[in-house]
User: Fold this.
Amino acid sequence: NEGQQLEALFAVQGIITDVSLAPFSQFRSPISANQAKHLRQSISLTGYGLQAFEIAVQNIMELYARFARLMPKKSTLRPADFITTRSNALGEDESTIDFSNRFFTLRKHATTDILPIQKELDPFDRLSNTRKHKYEYTEDNEIRIMEAKSKDNEWKFKKIKSSEIAVGDIVEVQVNFTLIPLGNNEYGLKAIFREVARFDNTLAMVSCVSIIDRATVLINLQKAAVKAQVRRARTVKENAPKPLKRIIAYTEEEEDDEALLRVKNVKLTNNEDGVWAGPSTALN
Assistant:
């Protein structure tokens, strides 16, 4: 629509090291206002030292540096706390990226449509009382969970349950980045979790041993290396700040057969430079 801003989506591929998606098993009674305020869905990715993933981290830090240069005078940007580095058993540094999104939005701050909470997200009605706390589940809070399958050089997407996403899966996560005012002239850069597509079981089986045996992973992932796509973004219109329109990256097969993302010459390679071409290849 004329005058409407579109959000910019970035795609990052990696292996899940931690994930928290609805339904939330920790609640035994309806949640409180404070619990609603802090409730989040999240996912953490790593590349187990693969260069492609480390390049993704570098690209995100470059984005952070650009935001830092745009800060108003006398304002500062806090370090990006969603990127962490740890040493593995071999003494090598490995990076992890954490993405999250609030499950609720304070009603007065909601800028997108209010959505009903589906039974699959809240089977025991622990979250349904949040309206009295003035919190809503909105389009901006929704996480789309998909499975990507390749057939005849064409990627097709199917909606799956959150329980089908697990540690060790190879996935592509769609995120956007936003500045949040923190008070005292400080801002924070947040990585907002929007969508996740799990690559089919053939590739997931390659990584299922990754938490236990990194050496095996490094051998197998030569055939299915993670290709980070942080810097591929959709155009953002330059106009006055207005509510953002959510962009849907993955189209379900049954919704629109013509809208399926096509990838040409998809193949797995064994050479050192072999990179697996995934769905985000179509996001140019």
In short: The chain has a mean pLDDT of 75.
